[in-house]
Specification:
231 residues, alpha/beta, four-stranded mixed beta sheet, 29% strand, five-stranded mixed beta sheet, 11 strands, single chain, disordered N terminus
Length: 231
């Protein structure tokens, strides 16, 4: 599993715990390796290429906070990272507030204040992010899944003919947690499985959260609903 060293938050850790707890229940013998990726890591491209060659991987964190996410997703879609002119290679993209915007091939600044995830084809918002100090708010995430063909020479005992790459990108931290809940849900398992190897699948998660009254410094939000939208 890949995380950003500088910007790993408590939300990323909650998403990590959600995923590892589920996988341990599915297979108690499963082994995990956690990898941090600092910003401007020089061998980043080489690490991305290795990731697609061996093993099953989960990458956590949006391009706002995890540079590795941008690199992995763009490698899957065979486009240059950090290139806004590549937006139309994707079905969906982030629409960020101006203070949060970063250079990304699948994200751009909002022009009217509505932030979240948009359909690239229509430009319409399909999942919204609203921040509240108390009450009900909204967040969202992108989940990208790719099945990667594994050549016979790299298979264990002639089995395991493919690797799975999963990238969970929340608009904010609670969106990443919501994405983790959707990723482990039996309800959405079929919809998150690509039809064939070599073709990445991108899906949108829409989530609501509750924030009870409390000290303004306490981030006491809890996910109340997380669902996978139909394309």
């Amino acid at each position: 599993m890949a995380l950003s060293r500088q910007t790993t938050s408590s939300w990323d850790l909650r998403a990590l715990f959600t995923l590892t707890h589920h996988l341990n229940k599915v297979d108690p013998g499963i082994r995990f390796k956690f990898v941090e990726h600092p910003r401007q890591d020089r061998p980043l491209r080489e690490q991305v290429q290795r990731l697609f060659k061996e093993g099953d991987h989960i990458v956590i964190g949006s391009p706002k906070s995890n540079q590795f996410s941008e690199e992995v997703v763009c490698h899957a879609y065979n486009v240059a990272p950090y290139s806004p002119d590549q937006l139309y290679a994707f079905e969906f993209a982030f629409r960020w507030g101006s203070r949060q915007a970063v250079s990304s091939s699948f994200g751009s600044p909002a022009e009217n204040g509505d932030v979240g995830i948009v359909s690239v084809a229509t430009g319409e918002l399909v999942a919204r992010r609203t921040l509240v100090t108390q009450g009900q708010g909204e967040d969202c995430a992108l989940i990208i899944v790719e099945r990667v063909f594994r050549p016979v020479a790299r298979r264990a005992h002639g089995r395991n003919d493919e690797n799975i790459i999963i990238v969970i990108l929340g608009y904010s931290g609670i969106g990443t947690v919501a994405g983790a809940h959707v990723a482990i849900s039996k309800e959405f398992a079929r919809a998150l499985y690509p039809e064939r190897t070599g073709k990445p699948l991108m899906k949108v998660v829409s989530a609501t959260y509750a924030r009870p009254p409390g000290p303004s410094s306490d981030d006491n939000r809890e996910v109340t609903e997380a669902r996978l939208l139909e394309n």
